Amino acid sequence: MTGATPLMVVDGAGVVVRWSRRAREIWLRSDAEAVGRTALTVVANRARDDGDDAEPGSGPVGIHDVDGNPLDLRVQIVPLSDGAVAWGVFEAEDGVSRVDTRTAMVDVLGPDTREAFFVLDSELRVLSVNAAACALCGIAPDEALGRPVTDVCRPSPHQDLEGVLRGVLASGTSVTDHVVRLDPPNPSSPERRAKLSAVPLRYARGVVVSMTEATEPLRTRRRLAALGSVRERVGRSLDVVTTCQELVDALVPGFADIAVVDVVDAVVRGEDPPLSPLGRDIPLRRAAFRIEGPADRAQAHPLGDVRAVPSPTPYSQVLSDLRPRAVALESGTPWLDVDPERARAIRASGARLLLTAPLALRGAVLGLLSLYRTEPHDAFDENDLAVAEELAAHTALSLDNARRYTHEHTIAAALQRHLLPPEPPSQTAMEFAQLHVPADAGAGTWYDAFGLPGARTALAIGEVSGSGIDAATAMGRLRTVIHSLAALDLEPDELLARLNDAVVRLADERAALPPGDPLRRQPLRAGCVYVVHDPLHAVCVMASAGHPAPVVAHPGGVVHVPEIPTGPLLGNHDGPPFATATVPVRDGSVLALRSTSFPGSQGPDGDGPDPLREALTRLDRPLNEVRDDVLYRLGHTSGRHDVLLLLARTRAFPPDQVATWSLDSVPAAASAARHHARDLLAKWHVDEEVAFATELIVSELVTNAVRYGAPPIRLRLVKDSTITCEVSDTGGAAPRLRHARTVDEGGRGLFICAQMSHNWGIRYTAQGKTIWTEQTLPQNTRRPRP
Question: What is the distance between the alpha carbons of residues 246 and 395, in angstroms, rounded to a whole number?
Fold first, then answer.
C-alpha cells in the first residue's frame, strides 16, 4: 500500500461514497461523476484478476482504465466495518502489509461526516473518533482516545450500552437503531437520545459504533403518538368520567409519567359548563388518574373527590386565561404551599415537571388536564405545549358530547320516571312488586297495572324502539292510549289491535316531519304484552305484540312460560291479527312480566341458571323479597335498555263479596233483581244513597236485557273498592246512550245508569254481551286491602 488514504470508499452495495484525488488522476473522473455510482461502473470494468473473484483483503486485484486497458495498478479492498458501513479501496504494492483499519476509518470519515463514529477495541475503549462524535459527546479527540466508550458518551444507564456492545463482540452480529439516552453535558440542559448502530470488525477484534442525534425526532414521534392515541381512544364513550379515563390511558406511559383529569362537577351531571374565568368557589371532581407504578402516595385526592382549585396556582391560572403552562417543580416553588396535599403527592411521586392545560370549549370550562414527568431533563417545550393544547381541545369536544348526552339522558330518565306509575297499589285479588334497573340509553320501557270492572286487573309491559327523550315521550303516549282502550273493556287481542293502529298513526307523523329532523329517520316500533286477570274465574287472558310471554309460577315450585301466540311488533301495517291465550292461575300464583332486555339463561346454549326462574321457585315469602332475590341473582346488569320486571301475586276474591243470579226473561225480572240487590246491599252495609242508585241501575239494566236482549239473563254484583253491577245476556244488539225527549215513554235507561254511576261500559264475549256500571263507595264502607 502506498498510503493510508483510500482511492475510493464504497458502501455495502458497492456505491462510491468518496472519491480521492489519486482516483481522479487515474480514471479522469470528477467527484460528481463518481460519487453515487457503483464502483464497477466507475472503473469501466469489473475488478477481477484472471477471472477469479477477489476476496476482500485477500490480495492485489487487477483494474482497468476508462478505455478498458489494463492498468499497472494493484489495489487492496479493506473493510472499514463489516460491509454494512464502508469499504476502503487502497493502492497496494507487493510486500506491503494491509492498512491500519483504525487510521483508515477516521480518514474516510472526514470532518464533513455528520454521523458520529467510534472505533472501539475488544475492551470497548475508544481507538478513533471523528469530529461528529466529539461534538455529540462534548469532548476533545485527545480526551476520548483510550477511554471506555461509556465514559465518553455518558449513556444512562451505562450498563445498557455496554451490554449491547459486548453482545455484538460475542455474537459477531450487527445491531441497528438501538436508542440510548445520553446524560446532558450540564444539569440544566435537556436530556438527549441517540440512535446507535454497532458493527463488528471482520479482521480485528473490535467494534465500529455509529450514533445519530435522535432527540428531536424521537420527541416528535412521541408527540405524534400521543395525538394519534388520543384521537383513536378518546371519545368512544358517552360517559364523562369514562372519557377522562380514556384520556389518561392514552397519555401514560408515553407522553407523560402521570396524568390527572379534574372535571367541573356540574359537567359530570350533564349541566352547562361555566364560562371562563372559572370562579374560585366552583368545585371540580377528580375524574381520572394514571401513573406507572404505585398510586397510593402519588394521589393528592382520591377519585371522585370534589373540591375547588386552590389559588393562586398554575392550575387556577390556566382555568382563568385558558392557556396551557409548563412549570418546573422544585422544592422551593412558592405556590406549592397553597395546596399542601398536592405538594405532598408531587414529592411522593417524584414528579419534576408539570404541564397543565384547560379542557375548554367556546370559552366554557369543562375541566383541567395535568401532566407530570419525573425525569428533570425531559422538560416540556413549546411543541409539547402545542400538542397538549390540541389533544385538550379534542378531549373537550368529546366531554361536551358526553355532557350533552348525560343531560338528555337525565331529562329522559326524569320524564320516564314521571310517566311510569308509582308502585301499583295492591288490588283485592292481586298484589304487586316491581323492579326497574335504568340503563344509560333507556327511557322507552314501561309497565302498568290498574283495576278493571268486575274485580279484574290489567297488567301491561312494553318497550318502544330508540332511546332518550323521544322514546320516553312515545312511551308516555302509548301508555295513555292503553288506559283509554282499557276503559272500553276490550279483550287483550282487540286492545292490541287498536294500539297497533295508534302506533301506525304516530309513525306516520314521524315520517311527515321535516327532512332535517333526525327523528324522521328513526322508525317507530314497540312491543307489548297485555294481561287481564279475572279472579272470579281464576284465569289470565294474555296477548302479545312481539314481546316475551310472562313467566307463571304456581305454589309448589312449578314455573313455566305459557305458550301464547306472539303477534308482530306494534306499528306494522300488514301484520297478522293478534290472538289471546287463557292461562289458569291459582290462589298464590305469581306472574312475572319482564322487558325484552331482561337477562335470561346464562349458559352458551341457554341451559345455564335463570335468575328469574330460580327466584320464583320459592313463593313462600313476601313478594318484595322475591323481587330482591331476583335482583341479587342478576348481579351487575349492563345494556342499552332498561331492565324492568313486574311481579303480580294472585289472591282469591272473597266469596262473600260477590253474588250472581240467573233471571227469567220476563217483565217481572226487574222486580226480582231489585229485591236481590236490596237484600245483598243491606248485608254489605252499603249506605242508603249508593244502595238506592244501585237498585235503580239494576232495574234499568235488567229491563233493557228483557226487552232487547236474549235469554239467559244473569245479574252479578261485586263489592270491592266500588260496587260493580253486571247484567249479561246472549243478545248481539248493542245498546246506545240516548237523550230522550220530554214526551218519550222510554229510552232513558242507559242515560239514567250513566248519571247514577261514575263509570259504565259494555263487554262483548263469544256468548253475548255484558253491560256493567261502577259506583264509588264511601271510604269507610270499602273493603280494606289485604
Answer: 9
The whole-angstrom separation of Cα 118 and Cα 129 is 5
Handedness of CA 171, 176, 180, 186 (dihedral sign): positive
DSSP string over 123-166? T-BEEEE-HHHHHHHT--HHHHTTSBHHHHH-BSSHHHHHHHHH
Q: Please give the Cα distance from 466 to 441 (Å, whole number).
A: 9
Average pLDDT (701-727) is 90
Is residue 263 a contact partner of residue 367, using CB atoms and an 8 Å limit? yes
Determine phi and psi for 165, rounding to 5 degrees: -70, -40
Give residue 637's pLDDT.
Answer: 64
Average pLDDT, the chain: 82
Residue 108 has pLDDT above 60, yes or no: no
pLDDT in tens, 288-347: 999 977 666 678 888 888 999 988 899 999 999 999 999 988 877 888 888 888 888 888
Written as one letter, the residue type at 411 is I
| DSSP strand pairing (258-264 vs 74-79) | unpaired
- All three cell numbers of 522, joined, read 328513526
Nearest to 770 by CA among 498, 453, 483: 453
Q: Are 392 and 358 in contact (CB under 8 A)?
A: yes
Query: Residue 355 has what pLDDT?
Result: 95
Query: What DSSP character marks residue 336?
Result: G
Contacts with 761 (C-beta within 8 Å, 6 or more apart), sequence order: 453, 487, 488, 489, 771, 772
Q: What percent of the chain has pLDDT over 70?
A: 83
Q: What is the pLDDT of residues 247-286, one digit of tens each?
A: 999 999 889 999 999 999 999 988 889 998 888 889 999 9
Q: Quick one: CA dihedral 704, 710, 716, 721, positive or negative?
A: negative
- Rounded Cα–Cα distance for residues 140 and 690 (Å): 117
Read off the pTM. Answer: 0.62
> Cα–Cα distance between 262 and 340 in angstroms, integer?
18
* Cβ(356)–Cβ(390) below 8 Å: no
C-alpha cell at 177: 437503531
3-state secondary structure of 364: strand
Q: How far is CA 739 from the centre of its chain?
A: 63
Checking if the pLDDT of 745 tops 50, the result is no
Question: Residue 61: which of 27, 92, 37, 82 has the closest Cα?
Answer: 92
User: Tell me: the pLDDT tens digits for 439-455?
Assistant: 766 677 888 998 888 88
Q: Are strands 643-650 and 590-594 parallel, antiparallel or unpaired?
A: antiparallel
Distance, first Cα to last Cα, the chain: 118
Helix axes 382-419, 240-251, angle to 10 degrees: 160
- What are the φ and ψ backbone dihedral angles of 327, each rounded to 5 degrees? -135, 135
Q: Which residue has the cell 335468575?
A: 611
Q: How many CA atoms lie within 13 A of 734 on its CB side?
A: 6
Concatenated DSSP letters for 393-454? HHHHHHHHHHHHHHHHHHHHHHHHHHHS-SSPPPBTTEEEEEEEE--TT---EEEEEEEETT
Contact indicator for 211, 116 with CB cutoff of 8 Å = yes
Q: How confident is the model at residue 376 (pLDDT cuts 50, 70, 90)?
A: confident
Strand 175-182 to 456-464 pairing = unpaired
C-alpha cell read off for 307: 373540591
By three-state DSSP, how is residue 660 classified?
strand
DSSP string, 248-294: HHHHTTTT-SEEEEEEEHHHHTTPPPPBSSPPTT--EEEEEEEESS-
- Tens digits of residue pLDDT in 43-70: 754 444 444 444 443 334 446 666 666 6
Q: Which three cell numbers stand for residue 605?
A: 346454549
Per-residue buried b or exposed e for 625-647, using 16+ beta carbons within 10 Å of the residue's own CB: ebbebbeebbeeeeeebbbbbbb
Phi, psi of 268 (to 5 degrees): -60, -35
Distances (CA, A) of 192 to 132, 152, 300: 15, 14, 31
C-alpha cell at 408: 338528555
